[in-house]
Request: fold
Amino acid sequence: MPPQADITISQAVVKRPLAGRTKTVAYFELKNNSSTIKTLRKIRSDIAGAIEIHTTLKSGATLRMQRLKELAVPALSSVTFSPGDKHLMLFRVGRLPMKLANLEFGFSDGSTYELEFVIEDY
Reply:
């Protein structure tokens, strides 16, 4: 059996932008299977002009998004990207493939992982 990758994802979904829109979101669970912290610094894909890591902050009854420059994923742990919490924002999204898209995740140690996302309608 091949060794397990240091980084894996599950429940990986890119939402198809609403009609007339060029931005959308991606949700997933990112798992660090290694014995060291992995710090996510950049995400790129041919399907978007830019991809940013965001989190949602709550102040009283107000919710607002904040961009994160990086995100540390502790060793042997996972981080969930979900509605109302951490998520990826994809900007300048063009026509998406029918079912699947690849996003490349870049980490501070220089490692990169190409991860597959399912494309779903809202």
Remarks:
- The mean pLDDT is 92.
- The chain has one domain: 7-120.
